[in-house]
Structures are given as structure tokens and as C-alpha cells.
Design goal:
58% of the residues lie in helices and 8% in strands. By secondary structure, the protein is α/β, with parallel strands linked by helices. The protein has a seven-stranded mixed beta sheet with strand order 6-5-11-7-10-9-8. Strands 2-1-3-4 form a four-stranded parallel beta sheet, sandwiched between helices. β12 and β13 form a beta hairpin. α16 crosses α18, α16 (368-380) packs across α29 (626-641) and α36 (788-802) runs parallel beside α38 (821-837).
Length: 870
């Protein structure tokens, strides 16, 4: 900073009863004095014979800065308060002197004019209340340095403090047109049918953040990043880390706008551009480019809180020694700091320790809730105020089904850019064309985008695709997670015997640069599992006529309960129409829970539950906010699925296969069959015969219902043991009587059986459901008319995918289930949940209430019940 050669004079006003605080203060000023920034004066400088009043008065009048060491003794001292403090406050009205209030002991200082000034410690916390008083004095020294810097700026502009204050209060800080354009830029070009140019505000959804200090602080584990600016009211330093393409820069952009809306003055810079610790120079450049007609002085004069947001902080051009100096220098001008860095930052223990005094957050991937918000924003672009809410929900649900099927749990990175790419792909593809393009084209498009990022020519895509196909199958065949240097050489030698290639090194280098492959500790592995699964299945598809690949497909199908095999088979369906794959899947469906029949949910399946049914409350139709219920449903799915980083494997294949739990494997296999069949039906229904579609649907129905029958049979046979187990738990944790414990145990037992039945019905319906296959589902229900389960699945599919209320079907089913209260209640539950999640006309609600024997409870009555509970 440019300043006069003469150091500033700091006058220290204090009560002699606070002598020890004076000594500590002067000690911590040593570095500022050594730099020549200032020198201090207090009455201890007086010598024998000095006129106390005159000397103090003259030195106070000559001071540039005045520090007040505040305590109850200071406030009660006539000379400290009435003479020194009040004279300085009077002088401030017509001079550029600055004061530094330092509260050292608790007192009523807020009842004095000092309440109008910023105190040197955070939130005015007294020095003696700090666990480490050295830490408190460092805060004070920083405040003194910042005050000195501002004083020098005022002096360099003619010393008219009133003029500068007047200017700062009247100055309007408007963003420059160029910076506004930057803040609106989505960085990736998106095409939308209702708006020619998409800007960030059109599609931005705030990600959730994980609090990395949750183990140490009594604060929320996660929060929406939309609350970050509110946190700045009480926090000064925030560190945000996120993986590549997690939306870090976009978050910085929206935070800039939010900070402005809250009255802050934010500045944005990229760490790559910080090549000096001369913060005055950096800030001056940022202000002039980001605000119209503003400069460093007008920015500094402003009384508004100043915030610096540094993106790519881990990419600072200055070295580690000067990184901390940059932050120290910035604190002289900036009130609050937000640093944003790549997630590699968190693995450097030394760096994280350096930022221990920062609030630390990590950007979480998009779960169901945030994906739902993003889908609705996309569908609302260009028609936010006019789109019919019912149409919006229907369109969003339709796209959500496909997005969830493509992303799947932990397969595709759940990051905004991936989700948006898929949404755009689905939105620009007619529903009837999904079967022709298949989801495989979407995955392929994502992979090509990664290659285009490193300027791979379109003519070379085939080379890279083939290399990835061979490479992935080599890893799969050798049962590897990653490949070391020797194994890489073996692969490359094998590849060179089959194909022409100019340079393995260039191809591998390109794949590493694109992020498709990654290297750690000398070992190479796939950066995203969906790429690995995609290319293993592509290899199998390309060589499906060989005995080796046929045998591999059989082995994969036989171990469908593992995550890896299930997903390779799903991707294989994208690549090939080979009937053998479908036949293998149908074979596995036929042997899952071999010897177990499908549950029908007739009275034979559920009769043993009748004695408990009276113990649970009847269902009623409540008045609920549809938007809130939709959010709650997505939030529940997030809670079940978890929002941790989706890039890591859940478990190795050895762990999955090594567990000697055949029953658990059988349960997983039945679930996987339902999921794989759902994938086939959704993107192959246009090319499969009606017979094939029926066979596949039946395989999914059968697999799920066999598991349900197995579960219900097991619980029926072991109900006494289960009830005893539940009762024992209650006895240990409650003071209920034996009769009350028995009733509660029976209620829990019933809800366990009931909720499992409901979950299986919904799982089958949501996995295989499609509006294009309604005739198939109808035929299956008709051909199995003696099974309430088939009827319930059909109704659940109709409500979820057709959205229309099939009144005749619902009424007939309810009447058919007479004498079967479990199936009747399941039907009621399915219809009520649809009612809560969709905008249903009041007359239809009345019809449901009448036909399904469901009382309609008014909102007033519901509120009354809540109040009685409180």
C-alpha cells in the first residue's frame, strides 16, 4: 500500500485498573510498529515534571488513531470517558481521526455512543471471555491494521472524511454490463423449445451442502447453499469444496447476486488470476471491471460490508507461503471471505488445518429433491407464469422417471451438468422416440462430451470408443478395480496384436485429461462407473456371438444380485437386441425364489393379519399442500438413498459375492430383475413383440411377488418369535403395561407386513410402468383377475403414469376386495398418495371419499388435533 513515510500515531486511552490489558495490547502491536505503520502513545510515556492534562491533551489532538480499552472502570473514569472519549467523538465530526474500541471486560458499553462503532473483537466479545486471549489480541491487531489502512486512503484523498462518507453513502454500486453477462452465462450451451437463450437464473437450483465440521460443532449437518448469505451475517470466513463439475462456479455467481440483494458489496475473482499479494491492486481491478463507474476508493469508503468470493482458490498462482499473506492483506479491506476449492483440497491435511477457523462445507450431489426442482425449472422456462400446474407436475413426473432410470443410484454422477444434459436430451426427444434412441444414446452423448472437452476429433471417436471397450473388458475379465503399469503393458500388447494404433501413450493421456480415466498412485481406473459398465457391455454386445461372451453373459445373469452385474446387464440391453439376453433374463426370473408362488394378496396370503387390522387407525383424506407433499416424497427418497458422494463404489464384487447369505442374495436378485426388466421395457418396447413384452412384464411381476410371498410366509410362520422380540424391546424402553406392550407389538408387526406389501406393489409399478404399455398391463391384470396384487399394480401404474383417475377400475377393485381388508387398505393408500401428490378436483376427492369409505377431514379439524397434541 502506498502511504506517507511517517508512521501513524496511535493514542491509547485506558483505566489504570486495566494495566495488564494495556501491556498485552502493546505487545501485539509489535509487528505493526516494526513495519513502520504506526507508533503508540499512552500516559506511561510521561516523565517527572510533565503537565499531565496538557501533555495528554496535546498527544490526543495529534493522534491519527485512538484506541479505547473499555471496561466498567473505563466507563466510570471521568478523564477516560468525559475528557478523552467525548473529545475524540466531537473531533470525528470534522476530522479524519479513527477510533478503535476494544472491550476487555464485560460492561454496559452498548449504552454509550460507542454502540455506533464497530468493536475490534468479533461481535464485541470481551477479551477476558476468550479461551485464548492471544487469539483475541490478534483480532484486535488486525482491526488496528485495517483502520490504519482506511485512514491512509482517506488522507490520500485530501483528508475530507465527511466528503468521503457522504460519497460512500450516496454512491450506487451497479454491476457492469460485462460482469452481468458473466453472471448470467451457463457456460454450457443449452437449447430449449420455449426460450432462445437460457441464462443461469432460468435453470439454477441451489445444491445442498454438507457441514464438514459437524462432528465438532453443534450445527446442522446439511443445509441448502441458498442460506450461505444469511450465514454471513454472523460468520466471516467460509470454505466450500466440491468435486469437478459439481457447480462451484455457478454457485459463486448466484452468491454474488444474493450478496447484493442482502446489501453486501461482493467481489468475485478466480484463484488463477491472483499472482501477487498486492491486494489493493487486485481489488482495484476487480471493482473497476465489476461495477460501473466505481474505483478502489469509492469501494473502500462504502459503509456496506465487503465480501470477497474466490473461485478455484486451490489454483492460486502465488505459492503456499504467499497464499496466507494474500488472505491477511485482503482482510485489511474485506470484511468477509468465501473461498471455493476443488475437493482435492480436503485430502491435504495441512491445508485443512490452516483453514480450521473457517466454516467448512462440501457440495453434495443432486438427490431426488434437487433433481425434481431442476426438472420443474426446466419445464417452466419461458412459461413460468402461464403453465398449468397440473401439466407441469405431469411433465415433470414423466421426465423424472426417465432421469432416475438413466442416472440410477451411484452409476452416473449426480451433478447438475449431467442432470441438465439428460433433461435436455429427453425434452428434445419425442416420447415415442425413446425406444428408438434408447437411453444408450444419452450415455454415449455424455461420453462424447467429455472427449470433445479435450478437442478429440470426431473422426477419432471410433478409435477411443474401441480402446475403452477393450480396456474395460480387460479390467472386468481380470477382476481388477484398477490397473497398474505392468498390467497396462499387458493390455496394450494384447490390444496391438488385434488393432492398429499409432500411440497408446497419446490415447491414454487423452482419456486421463478428459476425466474418463483417472490415475492415483500409479494405478489407472475409470473416473465414472457408468463409463466402465457402458463399455464392458459394449464389448459383450460387439462379440456376443463368441462362446466366451455368451458364457460371460450367463455368469453375469446368474449373479444379478450384485450392483456391478445388474448394471452391466442393463447397459447390455442398450447395446443389443439379441434375444439371447432376454431369454437369459427370463430364465433367471423363473428360478428366483424357486418353488415359491407369487403372492396374490388374497385372503389366503393375508388372513393371519386380520386379528391385528382393528388395532391401527383408519385412513382419512386430509387437506394437504400438493407442492409440500411432493417435496416431502423426494426428501424421503433422498434420506433413504443418501446424499454422500456418488463417485465411490458401494462395495467390491468380492464383498458382495463373499457374503454367505443366499436368502439375501435371492432378495437382491428379485429386485434387480424388476429393475432390469423396467429398463428393457422403457427403451425397447417399440421393437419387441407383444408376446415378448408380456413375458418380460410377467417376469418382473413374478419376481417381485415371489419375494413378497416369501416374506409373508416367513413372517406368518415366525410371527410368535417376531412378536416376542418386539415385546422385549418395548419392555426395555417403555413403562407400558404388559397389555399395552402386546398391543403395540401387534401394531408394529402388522405395519411391517403391510408396508412391505405396499413397497413391493409400488416398486413393481414404478419400475416397469410406462404410458406406452398400458394395454399390456391391462391384459396382465385381466389374465390374473383372481389376484388382488395384479389389480393393485395395474391401478398404481395407471395413476402414476396416466395421471387420470380410473374411477370404474378403482370402484370395481374396492368392491372385489370386500372381505379382504388388507388389499382394501392398500388400494386406499395408493389412491390417497396419488391424491396428495397431484392436483385433484374437489369433486373427484368427494368421489374417492364416498367410494373408498375414506372420511374427508377439514384443515380446521386437523389443526385442532395438532394443537391438542402440543
Amino acid at each position: 500500500m502506498k502511504r506517507d513515510l511517517n508512521p501513524l500515531k496511535l493514542f491509547i486511552s485506558y483505566s489504570h485498573k486495566d494495566d495488564r490489558f494495556l501491556t498485552e495490547f502493546k505487545t501485539h502491536l509489535a509487528t505493526l510498529k516494526r513495519k513502520g505503520l504506526l507508533y503508540d502513545w499512552c500516559d506511561k510515556e510521561l516523565v517527572v515534571g510533565d503537565d499531565l492534562d496538557v501533555e495528554i491533551k496535546n498527544n490526543l489532538a495529534d493522534a491519527d488513531l485512538v484506541a479505547f480499552i473499555i471496561s466498567a472502570d473505563f466507563l466510570s473514569s471521568w478523564s477516560c470517558y468525559e475528557v478523552e472519549l467525548m473529545s475524540v467523538l466531537d473531533r470525528m465530526a470534522h476530522s479524519d481521526i479513527r477510533i478503535i474500541p476494544i472491550v476487555v471486560r464485560s460492561c454496559k458499553w452498548k449504552d454509550t455512543p460507542l454502540r455506533n462503532y464497530l468493536v475490534a473483537t468479533k461481535n464485541g466479545t470481551p477479551i477476558d471471555k476468550y479461551d485464548s486471549q492471544d487469539e483475541a489480541w490478534v483480532e484486535v491487531a488486525d482491526a488496528v491494521e485495517k483502520a490504519a489502512a482506511k485512514y491512509l486512503v482517506v488522507k490520500s484523498n485530501g483528508g475530507d472524511n465527511n466528503l468521503s462518507n457522504s460519497f460512500s453513502n450516496k454512491k450506487q454500486f451497479n454491476l457492469s454490463a460485462e460482469f452481468q453477462s458473466f453472471l448470467s452465462d451457463t457456460e454450457v450451451s443449452f437449447q430449449h423449445r420455449f426460450k432462445e437463450t437460457i441464462v443461469l437464473d432460468d435453470i439454477y437450483v441451489y445444491p445442498d451442502l454438507k457441514n464438514r465440521k459437524q462432528e465438532y460443532d453443534d450445527i446442522e449437518k446439511t443445509l441448502s447453499s441458498s442460506r450461505l448469505v444469511d450465514l454471513l451475517q454472523s460468520r466471516e470466513k467460509i470454505l466450500i469444496i466440491g468435486s469437478e463439475q459439481s457447480g462451484k462456479t455457478s454457485l459463486c455467481k448466484v452468491l454474488i447476486k444474493s450478496c447484493l440483494d442482502k446489501g453486501f458489496l461482493p467481489l468475485f475473482c478466480n484463484g488463477r488470476d491472483i499472482k501477487t499479494t498486492d491486494v489493493e491492486k487486485i481489488i482495484g481491478k476487480l471493482v473497476s471491471t465489476q461495477y460501473s463507474g466505481a474505483d478502489f476508493n469509492s469501494y473502500l469508503f462504502s459503509e456496506r460490508k465487503k465480501i470477497l468470493i474466490v473461485d478455484d482458490f486451490d489454483k492460486l498462482a502465488v505459492n503456499s507461503r504467499h497464499r496466507n499473506q494474500f488472505l491477511i492483506n485482503a482482510s485489511k479491506f474485506i470484511d468477509k471471505t468465501i473461498l471455493v476449492a476443488n475437493d482435492d483440497f480436503k485430502y491435504d491435511e495441512q491445508k485443512m488445518l490452516e483453514f480450521a477457523d473457517y466454516d467448512q462445507y462440501e457440495i453434495l450431489p443432486f438427490g431426488y429433491l434437487r433433481r425434481g426442482e431442476l426438472i420443474e425449472k426446466w419445464n417452466s422456462v419461458g412459461q413460468t407464469e402461464i403453465i398449468d400446474i397440473t401439466d407441469l407436475h405431469n411433465q415433470s413426473d414423466n421426465i423424472a422417471h426417465h432421469v432416475d432410470a438413466i442416472i440410477r443410484r451411484n452409476i452416473l454422477p449426480r451433478k447438475p451438468i449431467y442432470v441438465l444434459t439428460i433433461i435436455q436430451f429427453l425434452d428434445t426427444t419425442k416420447t415415442s422416440d425413446y425406444s428408438l434412441t434408447s437411453y444408450g444414446h444419452c450415455y454415449q452423448s455424455l461420453i462424447q462430451t467429455m472427449l470433445k472437452k479435450i478437442n478429440i476429433k470426431i473422426s477419432e471417436f471410433d478409435l477411443y470408443s474401441n480402446y475403452l471397450s477393450e480396456f474395460s473388458y480387460f479390467i472386468f475379465r481380470e477382476k481388477l478395480e484398477a490397473i497398474d503399469e505392468n498390467q497396462l503393458q499387458n493390455f496394450q500388447a494384447e490390444y496391438s496384436t488385434k488393432y492398429l494404433i499409432k500411440s497408446h501413450e497419446l490415447v491414454v493421456e487423452g482419456l486421463l485429461s478428459s476425466g474418463i480415466l483417472r490415475m492415483e498412485g500409479g494405478a489407472i481406473y475409470f473416473g465414472h462407473r457408468y463409463v466402465f459398465y457402458f463399455y464392458v457391455s459394449k464389448y459383450l454386445s460387439d462379440h456376443i456371438e463368441t462362446i466366451e461372451c455368451r458364457k460371460t453373459i450367463e455368469q453375469i445373469s446368474a449373479k444379478l444380485h450384485t450392483e456391478k452385474n445388474a448394471n452391466i446387464l442393463i447397459f447390455l440391453v442398450h447395446h443389443t437386441k439379441d434375444q439371447g439376453v432376454i431369454d437369459e433374463l427370463l430364465l433367471q426370473a423363473s428360478v428366483v425364489f424357486d418353488g415359491v408362488k407369487e403372492a396374490s394378496l388374497g385372503i389366503n396370503d393375508t388372513g393371519y393379519l386380520l386379528e391385528y387390522i382393528a388395532s391401527i387407525s383408519k385412513l382419512v383424506i386430509e387437506q394437504r399442500d400438493v407442492e409440500e407433499q411432493r417435496r416431502k416424497r423426494l426428501k424421503t427418497r433422498d434420506d433413504e438413498d443418501g446424499l454422500e458422494d456418488a463417485e465411490c463404489d458401494d462395495a467390491s464384487e468380492a464383498e458382495e459375492e463373499g457374503a454367505d447369505q443366499e436368502e439375501l442374495a435371492e432378495v437382491n436378485r428379485s429386485v434387480r430383475i424388476v429393475e432390469v426388466v423396467g429398463q428393457i421395457l422403457r427403451n425397447r418396447h417399440g421393437s419387441l413383440t407383444k408376446t415378448q413384452l408380456i413375458d418380460l412384464c410377467m417376469a418382473a411381476y413374478s419376481s417381485g411377488l415371489k419375494f413378497l410371498n416369501y416374506f409373508l410366509t416367513t413372517t406368518r410362520e415366525d410371527q410368535e418369535h417376531i412378536l416376542t422380540f418386539i415385546q422385549e424391546i418395548f419392555k426395555k424402553n417403555t413403562e407400558l403395561s404388559d397389555d399395552e406392550v402386546t398391543k403395540e407389538a401387534r401394531k408394529i408387526f402388522l405395519m411391517l407386513c403391510y408396508s412391505t406389501s405396499y413397497s413391493v406393489i409400488k416398486k413393481i409399478a414404478n419400475s416397469v410402468g410406462s404410458n406406452d404399455l398400458m394395454p399390456i398391463f391391462k391384459e396382465l391384470s385381466k389374465n390374473n383377475s383372481d389376484s388382488p396384487a395384479f389389480k393393485l399394480i395395474w391401478i398404481a401404474i395407471h395413476l402414476e403414469f396416466n395421471k387420470k383417475l380410473p374411477k370404474i377400475m378403482i370402484e370395481d377393485a374396492y368392491n372385489e376386495f370386500d372381505g379382504n381388508p388388507i388389499s382394501q387398505r392398500l388400494l386406499q393408500e395408493i389412491v390417497i398418495q396419488h391424491l396428495y401428490l397431484n392436483n385433484i378436483e374437489y369433486t373427484d376427492r368427494q368421489w374417492i371419499s364416498s367410494k373408498l369409505n375414506l372420511p374427508m377431514v377439514s384443515q380446521l379439524l386437523i389443526q385442532g388435533k395438532k394443537e391438542r397434541k402440543n
